[in-house]
Amino acid sequence: MNHDNSGNPDVVRVVDPMADPGPLPDIVVRKSAANGCTITAVIVDPADAQMTLYGTVARDIDGGFVGSFYAADTVCGDQWRIVAADGTHYHANSEAEAVATLAHTLATA
Questions:
Q1: I need a surface site. Which of 12, 51, 53, 107 has the fewest CB within 10 A?
Q2: How much is the average pLDDT of 10-22?
Q3: Sign of dihedral through CA atoms 83, 105, 107, 74?
Q4: CA-to-CA distance for 47 and 50, rounded, in angstroms?
């Protein structure tokens, strides 16, 4: 029986935590405000592409979590999704629409 699984993508391999991971992209956290809410976004490559990986929205008045947003298509940065605090999922056409939906519509609900 052949146990050589080197070509099998389903085989789990141990990763050496001391190994050099190679170049890692810059990642920053940016905060902004809109309609009495704090928007926190995790941004990759802030000096160039500035693509948002995901973000959250919280009400300033009580710190309540309104929801989160992320791009379903991380390659193109589109097909945005919203997950409300109650677990409901919504679609958005852009990051701006996702933030506006959370800060202006769902934050007041």
A1: 12
A2: 71
A3: positive
A4: 7
Helix/strand/coil for 103: helix
pTM exceeds 0.90 for this model: no
Helix (H) or strand (E) holding 50: none
Residues whose CB is less than 8 angstroms from the CB of residue 1 and which lie 6 or more positions away in sequence, other chains included: none
The DSSP-derived string for 11-47 is S-----TTS-------EEEEEEEETTEEEEEEEESTT
* Per-residue pLDDT reduced to its tens digit, 53-97: 999 999 999 999 999 999 988 777 678 999 999 999 999 999 999
Residue that is written with structure tokens 């490559």 in the block: 45
Sign of CA dihedral 98, 100, 105, 106: positive
Residue 88 DSSP SS3? coil
> In this structure, what token pair is assigned to residue 76?
């193109």
Please give the Cα distance from 61 to 53 (Å, whole number).
26
